[in-house]
Input
Amino acid sequence: MKILITGGNGMLGRTLRRRLAEQGHEIAVADLPEWDVTDTDSFSAKLVALHPDVVIHCAAMTKVDDCEANRELAFKLNEEGSRNVALACKMCGARLFAVSTDYVFSGEPPKEPWAWSETDIPRPQTVYGASKFAGEQMVQMILPEAVILRIAWLYGAGGPSFIHTMAKLGAQEGAPLKVVNDQRGNPTSCDTVADAIAFLLTKPYVSGIVHATCEDQCTWYDLAVELFRLLGLKREVVPCTTAEFPRPAPRPKNSALKKSVLNLLGYRTPNWRDALARFAREEFLV
Output
């Protein structure tokens, strides 16, 4: 298939380009400055001229604190941009995969342990989450047959990510590193997301919301400890609370996602520990 990836030069986009090309797909990249998802006419004209079979929409404003400080820009990129991509896909008949986020949920689970399902009602608590949910709604209204793929705690080749930051800090000498231990989620490799999309490409009848994170959940502290074990890093890591590191945008207490749709299709994503071990071998050569 001919596949266009918006934001194709970003961390997830780079992995998608590599993994899907390996499977024989023809890959095109839509990224700034040539492609601007907020420019309705220009983007539509370029997409219609290219006429891809599939569009994977990764382009977004994803820095959570920056979104909090720039609400108008966040909605322009994440809501209007998604609307424009969906309209263009409708014009040329392309199947759309729109990448979204765990931040559409409140992050305040009614019980522990908890994981949000595809049918749970989003109640975003941040500008980032609200703008991405608005983008989801735009896509569903314009192109009901689209797939909205929610992901979380992402890391991939070349970064930037929590994994790369912690690996760098862990290799340095210094005081124990404090890492938050009261936020839970699903650490997820870009390879996991790419593999899930590759699977869904073979299921043309699938539409709607699909969660595509790694299996099982942990805290950021758990993730750092496991990474240091895999890399053989000796710097001490100690748990701390979210309150000790206040940020402009609130972080969800628990944003773990159930993979109900993928599991019903007979597909299971890897456990986060297995995915991390594989990534550590490939990225850090351990």
The radius of gyration is 19 Å. The first strand starts at residue 2 and ends at 6.
